[in-house]
Structures are given as structure tokens and as C-alpha cells.
Hints:
In chain A, 19% of the residues lie in helices and 32% in strands. Chain A has a 7-stranded mixed sheet with strand order 6-8-10-12-15-16-17, with no helix packed on it. Chain A has 6 helices and 17 strands. Chain A is α/β, with parallel strands linked by helices. Chain B is an alpha/beta fold. Helices cover 39% and strands 15% of the residues of chain B. Chain B has helices at residues 17-30, 47-50, 61-65, 71-74, 100-113, 127-133, 147-162, 177-182, 188-195, 207-215, 226-238, 259-263, and strands at 4-9, 35-39, 76-77, 84-87, 116-120, 138-143, 169-175, 199-204. An 8-stranded mixed sheet of chain B has the order 3-4-2-5-1-6-7-8, with helices on both faces. In chain B, α5 runs parallel beside α6 (127-133). Chain B starts with a strand and ends with a helix.
Amino acid sequence: MNATGKKFEAVTIKGTAGGLLCRMLEDESLLFTDLLNELSDRLAAGEKFFRKGRVSVELGSRLLEKSDFEGLVEVLNRYEITIDAVISGVNATRLLAKQAGIPYNLPNNQNTRPSIVPDGPAEKGPVSGATPRGVHPFDTAEAYFIRRTLRSGQVIKHHADVIVLGDINAGAQIIAGGSVIVWGTVRGRIDAGQAAQGEGAVICALSLRPTQLGIANVVAMGNFDALKDPDAGPEMASLQDGTIVLDSWMPHRGRLRG
Amino acid sequence: MPGRVITITSGKGGVGKTTTTANLGTALVMQGKKVAVVDADIGLRNLDVVLGLENRIVYDLVDVVEGRARLRQALIKDKRHPDLALLPAAQTRDKNAVSPAQMADLVGQLAQDFDFVLVDSPAGIEQGFKNAIAGADLVLIVTTPEVSAVRDADRIIGLVEAAELPTPQLILNRIKPAMVLRGDMMSMDDVRDILAIEIIGIVPEDEQVVISTNRGEAVVFDTVSKAGKAYTNIARRLLGEKVPFQILDVPPPAPKPGLWARLFGLK
């Protein structure tokens, strides 16, 4: 990742209620291949978060050559990212998307997210069943609220905070850009703070017995002896001096466990 | 009113799906219901063996789906229990010979003529499993009190919910009360804590099951067998009765030392 601060601005990836949105600056003075390199760097930096994700790509009024478009698809394919939609104000670019069998859309000036998020293929398997896109309680809120138990094999990826009313069973996983709060028992794996500056993220649960916990780029394995204490009560995991530390939620009555 | 289609599945193999299907089917017949049992384990059929009907197979499920036989021709009526019928799986084909839509259609037809249609699912989460849950009104998940089996059951529950079927219910099979008491085996509460679904029955480990299975008879006929009793209870619960769970006593350690041995502290 050698991008200079200024050039880094040319590609922005942000979360919206409709999913991840990748914006490629339409400034014609920048070469599209440079934008692609930058995109590639960005994806490499956040690979864990982005891999196998979905994204809408906004290209503004930039005119793309066929090779440019193929390059874009190639970069996203490298990270197994599904393109939800190509948003372009240029007919020819939308046509390229159409030929490639990728959903496309016109830019929506009022809103940064695509106005139509096309459904994926009907047969999507269990993982996509676990992440119903577009089912979001508050359209403007960033947090994702899940009102059920995540079972083995189910993965939730969200760019911001995640709140779960239910358990995270062994074999299930949450990858969140922000913090994760579970009103239930955590037996599976949680990776919080996977977005930039995620070190401040926390993981809270009524009962924390994870197989693994991650905050930012630190991963801790579940220490089974300590974690089997049934009376531990609600706990919060946070990053302190580069280590994941578990604190009782009630600091006055509880004890500190590292 | 059409009958209920109930699929028995597990994820993990060897936990007792087929035994459960055979015994639950027989138990429902003994409760006065007409029951069809369907072997959806195409390529690895064995429900016919457990029911002792292997030698009577002429046509199978795939023959019906592909139009070589009518449903009635393929159904094997158990002579010992006229209200029990088996639709056997094909042995020479694989799971891809049938689609979920064809399967749903088939069990739908059976539900017209029977009070209960029990579908014995293959292990795994692939095509065979998808076929087996197609058209089900209720899914029963069989698990043993082992971490691996419970983990697979959890995965299956997620898949059943993703298929927009009602929340499945659980049969906890092959539990050993003595081991649970010693804390060496997961208890019913432990399993319920993890899976958070309703438990419709617990079946104790019982040698009689092996004996009956090898003879091609259902263990529910054995009035002494605790496993048999457990299956009968599950059948009654399916019919809406409130039946308390059996209290699974710890068997006394055998053989007991005699009086003299005890007096002299000998073994």
C-alpha cells in the first residue's frame, strides 16, 4: 500500500443501508488504471472484511473502455466480491455492464446508494439466507440489528455495529466494521473493528464463550477453562495495549479477567 | 384433510435417523394412524432393511418419479401392520436422480392417502437433504449428546429455517443416563441450551434397538424396552398428547457383590 494521502481519496468505499458502495472519482485527469490500483490496495488492506462481499460501484460520468471495465471486474473477482450494481451516467458504460450480465443503474443524485438493489440469484445457499440485504430496521441507521440466533455455518458481515438478540453458536461468525453487542451467549467467532480505526471497537455479550474473538487485527483464542465459568455474567471485550481483555460488565461486583 | 409430512434428518450420519423413522412410523401405526415411510437416502437405502421389507421391493422412489411405476405399485405394505407402507429408495442411482420439486409433489400425493408421511433423510446438507425437506410440514432433527452431532444439528436447524420451514424439533437419541449423571455426557438441558429448540423426545441407549434392527422389527413392540417406550411417547406427542419425559434411571451397577464378599471387603 503505497498510496499517497491525496490519491487515496480517489476511491471511496463506504457502507450504506443498501450495502457497500464503492465510488470511483470521475475526474478525467486521473487514469482509470490508477484508480484500479488504488481500489486493489484498499481491498488488500481490508481483505478480511471485503472478501466474498458485495458492492455497488459508482462510476459517475466517466467513460470506460471495455478493458477498463474488465479490469474493474477482475480486481473485484480477485477478492470474490459480487457486484450488486454498476452505477453510471454513461450509456456506453452501462452497456458494458449489461453485456457482462451485471446489474446496472443510473446515478441517483439525492441518494448515494443504488435505488434498486437487484436480488441475487434465487438459489443462494444458507449464508445469504443469513444476511437478508435490505432488511434493515432503520433506513438511516448504520447498525445492523439481528433478532435471531446465528447457527453454525451462518456468517454476518456488516460495515458498522452489529446488535444480536440471540446466540452466536459455535461455527457461526460475525465480521463487523464496528462493535458487536450480543444479548445472548457467544460460542462462535466474532471479529469486531474490521473497518479503519477499529481499535476502539468492543464486543459485549451476556455470556462470552467464544471459539475466537478478534478486534481490529488482534485475534484471541477462547481460553476454555476461564470461559467455562457459568457465573461469569455479562462481559465486555476490548483492546488494551494490543491485547484483547475481558472485563465483567459490572466492574464493582465482578472481577477482571485477562 | 391431507396428512402431515414429517422429515427426520440430522446432518451427521449414524445418529439414528433410520431407526427413528422406522420406530416412529410403527409407533404411529400402533396409535391407529395410517403411515407411509419414505426412504429419501437414494443410493444408500436401508429403511427397508430395518423394517424387514427388503425382499419385497419391486419398484422404488426413482421409478415413480421417472414414470416407470405408479405410486401405488411402488408402495410396500407391511403384512404385519397393514396401515404401514414403505416407499423404498433406489439403490442404483444417486441423490441427483430426484429434484426437490418432484419430491414435494410425491410426498404431497402420499399425504392424500395417509395420516402421516415420514421421510427418512440422508446425512449431509446437500441435494439429498434438500430433497428430503421438500414438502415437509415439520422437521425432526435427531442428534446424539455428542459435540459433533450437536454442532451438525445446529447447522441443519439454520438450513431448515433458511428454507422457511417451521422451527424444527429435536429428538435426543442414545443418551446414557449414568454418563450424564457423572458429567461425562451432555444432558438434555445442555443440548437445549445450545440449540434452543423444543425437544420432542429423548431416547435412551438400548441394546434392544440393535437386536430389533437386525431382526427387521421395530423396537416399539418390545414393551420392556425403554427406547421403544420413548418412541411411543414421541408418537403420542406428535398426536398432540402431553406426555411427560421418561425418568431415565441409572441402571444399578452389575453384578452386585454378594453378602459375604461385602462383609469381608472382597470383590
